[in-house]
Structure formats: C-alpha cells, structure tokens
C-alpha cells in the first residue's frame, strides 16, 4: 500500500457507497478492482498530474479516467461526500484542512492582461479547496 492509498477501514466505508457495477459487461475492469481504481483517482487528484501519468500499479489510466467520469456524471461523488460528512458529523470526529496562498502587496489592484487570461484558462485563481477526513480513535487522543 502506498502513501495516500485507502486503509482497510476507509475502504470498508467507501465500498458500500459506490454503485454496483454489472459483472457481465464484458469490458473494462471488474468491479472487484474498484479499490485500485479509487486509489488511482485519489493519486491523480492529490498530485494534480494528467490522467495519462497515473502509475500503472493502479490500472490502465483510461479505465481510471472513464470510471471517474461515469461516477461524476451519475452524481456518485456528491453522494459519497454527503454521506461521509454525515458520518463524521454523527461521530463528532473530523478535521478540516485548507490552504491559503497570500499574494504580494503589489499584486492587489494590478492591471490585468494576457497573462491573467492564460491563468484563468488554466484554472488559476479558482476558489480554495479543502479536504475533510475522519481521524482514527488513537490519533484523536494524541491531538487533544
């Protein structure tokens, strides 16, 4: 298991939230390999690399990408995030991590231009994202 891959406890929770894939589709990865695919998706989202750069140990990058897109279009990720948030709220054990990047004082009120258009096209300047995760019982006692 690599750094960032799902633990057994995390997988048990997440596995129940994923849609049931048809076993006789004849194409693509079997549903039993969803854990590898999820770990590949998490690797790609964590690193920000192109889909084609997902390490082969997680499976074919195109399979990982197609499963991610199919589940995105079906609303699976929204359902997973809501369910995980409810689980964390019910247990009272959660942690929120966010990142803020401060700009230089001269960056305030500067004129825009071609560079701003390029940055906007690449998604720079988009809202700050945050990650929420469940802390295991023994980690909570150490952080208190």
Question: How does this structure look, described?
Answer:
There is one protein chain. The chain has 144 residues and is mainly alpha-helical. The protein has one domain (8-143). The chain contains six helices and two strands. Strands 1-2 form a two-stranded antiparallel sheet. The longest helix is centred in the middle third of the chain and has 16 residues, at 76-91. The two termini are 28 Å apart. 8% of the residues are buried. Residues 126-130 have low confidence and may be disordered.
Shape: globular
Distance between the termini: 28 Å
Strand order, sheet with most strands: 1-2
Cα-based radius of gyration, to the nearest Å = 19 Å
The domain tally reads: 1
Please identify the oligomeric state. single chain
Outline the biggest β-sheet: 2 strands, antiparallel
Amount of helix: 40-55%
What portion of residues belong to β-strands? 5-15%
Which sequence of SSEs, written as H and E, runs from N to C?
HHHHEHEH
Mean pLDDT: 74
Total strand count, please? 2
Q: Helix segment count?
A: 6
Low-confidence stretches: 126-130
């Amino acid at each position: 298991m690599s750094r960032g891959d799902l633990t057994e406890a995390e997988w048990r929770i997440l596995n129940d939230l994923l849609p049931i894939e048809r076993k006789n589709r004849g194409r693509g990865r079997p549903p039993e390999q969803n854990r590898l695919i999820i770990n590949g998706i998490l690797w790609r989202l964590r690193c920000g690399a192109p889909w084609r750069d997902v390490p082969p140990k997680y499976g074919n990058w195109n399979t990982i990408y197609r499963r991610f897109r199919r589940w995105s279009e079906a609303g699976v990720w929204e359902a997973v995030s809501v369910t995980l948030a409810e689980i964390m709220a019910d247990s009272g054990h959660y942690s929120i991590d966010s990142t803020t990047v401060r700009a230089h004082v001269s960056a305030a009120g500067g004129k825009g231009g071609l560079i701003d258009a390029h940055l906007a096209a690449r998604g720079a300047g988009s809202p700050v994202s945050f990650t929420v995760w469940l802390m295991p019982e023994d980690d909570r006692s150490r952080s208190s």
